[in-house]
Amino acid sequence: MRIVATGLSALLIFNVAHSHAGGAESELTGTNFWAFQPVQRVAAPSVARKDWPRNAVDQFILARLEKEELAPSPMADRTTLLRRLTYDLHGLPPSPTEIDTFLADTSPDALAKVVDRLLASPRYGERWARHWLDVMRFSESDGYEYDRIRDHAWTYRDFVIASINADKPYDRFVREQLAGDVSEPLTRDALAATGFLVAGPWDQAANVSASLLIKQRYREEELEDILGTVAQTFLGLTVNCARCHNHKFDPVPQRDYYRMRAVFAGVFHPTDKDRALPLLPPADRKSYDDQLRPLKDRRAEFEKRLIDLDKTATERVKKLWPATESTTRKVTDAERLAAMTDVEKKSREEWIAGRNGLDGELKKIPAAPLAYIVAPRVPEPTHLLLRGEPDKKREPVSPGGLSIVSLPFDLPADAPEAQRRIQFAQWLTRPENPLLARVMVNRVWQHHFGRGLVATPNDFGKMGARPSHPELLDWLASEFIAQGWSLKKLHRHILLSATYSQAGSGPVATRATASMRRSDPRLKDADNRLLWRFAPRRLEAEAVRDAMLHVSGQINLQMGGPGFRPFTNLTTKGLESEYVPADPPGPEFNRRTIYRTFVQTARDPLLDALDCPDGSTKTPVRGITTTPLQALSLMNGSFTQRQASHFAVRLRVEAGADTMAQLRLAWRLAFGRVATAEELREAEVLRKAQGLEQVCWALFNANEFMHVR
Amino acid sequence: MNPLPNPCADTLDRRRFLWESGAGLGSVALAWLMQQESRAAEATSPYAPKPSHFPAKAKRVIHICALGGVSHVDTFDFKPELEKRDGQESGKVFDSFFGQPGRLMKSRFAFRQHGQSGRWLSELLPHLAGCVDDLTFIHSMHSKSANHTPATFLMNSGFTLNGFPSVGSWISYGLGSENQNLPAFVVLPDVRQTPSGGPINWSAGFLPAVHQGVAFTSRGPNPIPDLRTPMETSAESRRASIDLLAKLNQRHQASDPSDNALAARIRAYELAAQMQISVPEAVGIDGESEATKKLYGLDDAASASFGRNCLLARRLIERGTRFVQLFNGGQFGQPRINWDGHEDVRKNHLDQAATMDKPLAGLLKDLKDRGLLKDTVVLWTTEFGRTPITQGIGGQGRDHHQKAFTIFAAGAGLRAGTAFGATDDIGFEVADKPVEFYDIHATLLHLLGIDHERLTYYHNGVNRRLTDVHGQVIKEVLS
Question: Are A363 and A185 in contact (CB under 8 A)?
């Protein structure tokens, strides 16, 4: 990295703005670009201030700060640190008991114990799965005008949560998402993983159109979505730019795009009537179906006969009624039965017996759960398409890898579908691939510090940002691989660093040398690029909602399974959908936000206002915006009102009749700290005049509740 | 580089594309950054107005989306040759949406010349015909998709896929708003039903969420969710609670005064309180005169609901809202509540025109009378046209047609009473000066003083533009 000047400009180096159309840069140069070089592990640098670093991360960070004559901040106090860690790993606030335990623990490994406890809890997987779902554009509906819900898409969300909680090695986690349905071991978990490839939109209308070109064009869009997601998620590369032309900035020739397209040419959404596949190995799916189908068909036949007979009998009864009555009264079962002939009655009993018998037989076959996963087909040959247009086919292209990752991977044009994905997954996860580990450790870093070492986590190419600490990035990447691709070990290393434990605000270190005192980091690195402090941040939408439920005592920690649906579908028109958000009370709706069925057009005003993405956009970095609509939603929304009421009830129950005790508990639950005397005095004035609920309302709306330091 | 600062996103967003090495232009970046910093400090409102690239002709936009595919040959694009060849084979082999091309079919409506400009319009839109001298028609539109929702997304965002920012959000991002107490981008969906794709049509995509369109609903008493203080909370109670909240926030902020996000959040609560007053005021049309209500067709059951939205649109832009988008037409599919005349184009278009004609003409006249048309652009679009050929032999309807259609605009900076581009003799294909939505978007931004190639936002490896890699300003339609 070239340093141009001191002060701010040393840290902010200009990006020549390119437009997507950018003219003369189409030549495929740049293979010597940093991101495409092998990962280089260098020893952690030595530092002047020996007493500060706790581990290698700290040495890299401090060495850079010392080079800029900046000093790190003092350590955060323990209460702040525990709140920070708990939100970071769980997306929830610490309980008063957890705070007390940590404050009372004077052992040198008190912090390590907390980190281990948090990583061992299933709340951790629920929190970190959401980060992953943001990156890979998870959605439980089709998008477009129908936006039909995919009833079985939650299986992928559960796969992610389970994998993260189990600390599944990241390389295996990746392979399963690309080829888990065709590789050994064929676990239920691995089968659900290919939901990754088909989580994008699916256009029902384009697929029913009679126009061949519309269908073909749409298929290319679908594949671009899949390829773009695969490359951005795992490699931090925007290969989708090469669909129509050689990549303007990165060494991705158009041909590479089509090699990758051939790898995924057999990947299709499950579009049969169930819109899902049983979670069984492909070889067993047919025999399972063969077993079930005849029984289901026979059952359906009995059911149909029974319904028809009921209809006939109902009409017979109604015929005898005066016209006015037939609109106001319903025919009863007894009346219907009385209107049947003896022969009919006998048939009816036989049919009921037949249906019940089949139900019994069906129950004996162990049900395979359904999942929205890849429904593979035999791939059509792939051709390079001029300007990406399906009616401008050029030479045929065989499946293969990207030439930018200089590991060979080529298959013949007629390679079987499964082989293509299996071998691509193996190629992608070879430890020599310089991008896979770098991109992932950067994502982990991003969520711990608010920003990645590379600030553009889905773009490690020339248009992306350069790493602020390239040696640290490579050190972490090589350590990640050396530790068996374990995310938990990576978290642990980062979270136990002095860098992470720094205060988020407060005065500049007093123990700094004279020259350090002269250089105020607030002026020199206002953006905290070099991590001289912890960057305070607002909670994400899910954490805000979950924290309110947690603090109010209403949270329902039921894990997994179909999501809750706090919306109604207004439309009465065929397959179309018009979802209207709702805020129904009840335990079912008090589950963690990750279990909300994620439908593209069923958006929630509160989550929306807090920058929750809509499921159609890959969101490697969430926006953090502050708007009047957000304030309105938190001030007046029924969810906040209800949780404030529950919070007040909880305080009365747990703290008893002593109103001061109620307020003290309120502060501990909402802010994770002890209230000051002044705060208690002010709150008591409001409580007396307007009730405890209003105090709870104010706490939920407070900046301190919404922000982590 | 991106000349438009974006003070409402946090510093992280604003700067992330600056971290490039090697270019040696640090001083330029620094100057730009300092300018942004100072502006961000001043601009405590997320909708703060921002300067345009060059002097603008227009300050604001009303965009009317007539959904379903309005038949150009039955409305604005008069084709005598089609009348002559009515019922004949078209001789066209093409890939139509439903795959049943029938015979040529003349317009189901009589055409006549109107105004001083002598524009030909069909009898379908008698009120709008009275406004032709204020309109600029573009007859040579063509689109990439003959599939409703992707075509609608293309019209609204320049992409057929989900997930890209809409025109209104780009304009909100680029220019902010002149009224800090109202959203910069307001959407008024058809009262009958929200359009297909719903909020995707007014999404901010990857732009900061503040630029997303705010859909005003006519369902229930509040145009936007959570606008009013809950019934069970008295005004006094709310005041007292806000008082405690303010103290909590002040003390919290005092411990880290450098954190702009905290100050912004405090300001957002102040803005929210103002919005609680200004939004109900803006939507309160009761004070409008009877003559005005009549002008917008509020006295007629067929046109009342769209008329109300047109009147609302005028009230919003009067108060400084930057971009108001109205939908004429609800979801696709059966029953038809939009311009999708597959079965019987005459009946379908008569029903739709009854909802739109009078309110739209009323809006144009009212804007003109009040002097608002001088600095407002009214843009009317449909996602595609309809085939000049019947759907199925013997059919009375027309299929989707992306090869040719007509749109129009009126107001600031436009050559009124003119037409641009042309289709062939039967309205099947563009014959002269083809135009795509990219060009419309580029021209619209130009009228607002924005260079469409310079309005960019970095996202996932690309400095994204509304017009992607396309778009030409149509100079010929500018005054």
Answer: no
The encoded tokens of residue A453 equal 């070492």
Diameter of chain A measured on Cα atoms: 106
Q: According to the model, what pLDDT value does residue A248 have? A: 78
B60-226+287-477 folds as: Alkaline Phosphatase, subunit A (3.40.720)
CB A639 within 8 A of CB A581: no
Least confident piece of the model among A7-16, A224-233, A460-469? A7-16
Question: Do residues A546 and A592 make contact, with C-beta atoms less than 8 angstroms apart?
Answer: yes
Q: Which residues of A touch B20 (CB under 8 A)?
A: 13-16, 465-466
Q: Are B11 and A631 an interchain contact pair (Cβ–Cβ within 8 Å)? A: no
**How far apart, in Å, do the first and last CA atoms of chain B sit?**
30
As beta bridge partners, residue A27 has none
DSSP per-residue string spanning A501-540: HB-SSSPPPTTS-HHHHHS-HHHHTTT-TT-SSPPPEEPP
**Residue ranges of the domains in chain B?**
1-43, 60-226+287-477
Instruction: Give contacts of B28 with chain A, Cβ < 8 Å.
Output: 14
pLDDT in tens, B213-233: 888 987 667 888 899 899 889
Could you tell me which of B330, B393, B325 has the C-alpha nearest to residue B148? B330
**pLDDT tier at B206, thresholds 50, 70, 90:** confident
User: For residue range A520-575, what is the model confidence (pLDDT) as tens digits?
Assistant: 777 677 778 899 999 999 999 999 999 999 999 999 999 999 999 999 988 766 67
Confidence grade of residue A27 (pLDDT, cut at 50, 70, 90): very low
Contacts of A480 (CB under 8 A, 6+ apart): A170, A437, A440, A441, A486, A490
DSSP SS3 for B400 = strand
Distance CA B14, CA A527 (A): 11
pLDDT given at position A285: 78
CA distances from A605 to A238, A361, A595, A636, B204 (A): 32, 47, 17, 11, 15
Distance CA A173, CA A233 (A): 12
Mean pLDDT of B371-377: 97
Q: Residues B99, B84: contact at Cβ < 8 Å?
A: no
H/E run at residue A654: helix A638-655
Q: How far is B133 from chain A (nearest CA, A)?
A: 37
State the burial class of residue B344 (Cβ atoms within 10 Å of its Cβ: 0-12, 13-18, 19+).
middle
CA torsion, points A460, A464, A470, A473, in degrees to nearest 10? -50
- The answer to whether the CB of A495 falls within 8 A of the CB of A119 is no
A285-301: pLDDT as tens digits: 777 778 888 888 889 89
Q: Model's pTM, two decimal places?
A: 0.82
Search chain A and give the residue with CA nearest B252.
Answer: A704
The span from the CA of B464 to the CA of B412, in Å, is 27
| Whole-number Å distance between alpha carbons of B376 and B382 | 20
Neighbours of B203 (CB within 10 A): 29
What is the predicted ipTM?
0.83
Angle at Cα B262 formed by Cα A12 and Cα B37, nearest 5°? 30
Q: Could you state, in order of their start, the residue ranges of all structural domains in chain A?
A: 151-275+375-428, 280-368, 541-708
CB nearest A631 (choices: B160, B272, B458): B272
